Amino acid sequence: MTAMPTSTIVTGLTKHYGQRRAVDDLSFELRAGRVTGFVGPNGAGKSTTLRMMVGLSRPDRGEARYDGVRYVDLAHPARTVGAVLDARCMHPGRTARNHLRATAALGDIPASRVDDVLADVGLESVADERAGGFSLGMRQRLALASALLGDPRVLLLDEPSNGLDPDGIRWLRNRLRSFADAGGTVFVSSHLIAELARFADDLVVVGAGRLIAAETVASVTSRTGTSLEDSLLEMTAASAAFASA
Fold it and tell me: Is the entire prediction scored with pTM above 0.85?
């Protein structure tokens, strides 16, 4: 991992699609050395937020900065931020190795990193097989390998557990935890709240595009006296009721 720590600050992100406000003045800070879960119901604006954080969608207002620099202004983005926003974003006719080689070339990353990340995610035995024949879980691993190529300081992941079997979910949990323990910043959206509770330190909770809470997992559960899953259901339900009032 390259120089640390990294300050990741999102300020006032707002995005409209027609008359619908998908993200509404969203602000939060991600802390290095910690895993932050990004949670909320479907349609809460999580994917849109992540896309704006890496320049794939232009905000109507607001910004995300990494050590004070917008993603689009980073000299070598892949060396600061690694993102997995869609596990299907790979050519089905390419082998895993060739997909990573092409990704490395685009990001000005040494080709020697390819074998490193293939081993890291457990795909070295299928490195020369075409991605089109991979299961969803294998594609998730390949997408994470792409995100890790630049040895980034920040990981942004949108539902990375989709398609993983129980062993794969445990492997992902341990890998993300070790990334954070080494000083990295992890921001991960997930519907698997019980799993998230096992390794996340902090939470950003959204509903209807608005921030509901940004606090530690421990503070949420200690305040409510219930499981994290029940606590979040209560928080997002209250937000939905307020939004519709």
Answer: yes
Q: How far apart are CA 229 and CA 205, in angstroms?
A: 12
Query: Distance between CA 201 and CA 186 in Å, rounded?
Result: 10
Give the chain's length. Answer: 245
Question: How far apart are the C-alpha atoms of 162 and 158, rounded to whole Å?
Answer: 9
Structure tokens at 192: 């698997």
Q: Which fold has domain 8-80+152-244?
A: Rossmann fold (3.40.50)
Neighbours of 80 (CB within 10 A): 21
Q: Which residues contact 225 (CB under 8 A, 6 or more apart)?
A: none
H helix or E strand, kind and range, residue 116 = helix 113-120
Cα–Cα distance for residue pair 222/39, rounded to 1 Å: 18
pLDDT tens digits in sequence order for the chain, 245 residues long: 555 557 899 999 999 999 899 999 999 999 999 999 999 998 899 999 999 999 999 999 999 999 999 999 999 999 999 999 987 778 889 999 999 999 999 999 999 999 999 999 999 999 999 999 999 889 999 999 999 999 999 999 999 998 889 999 999 999 999 999 999 999 999 988 888 989 999 999 999 899 999 999 988 888 777 788 888 888 777 665 445 44
Cα dihedral 209, 177, 153, 26 in deg (nearest 10): 10
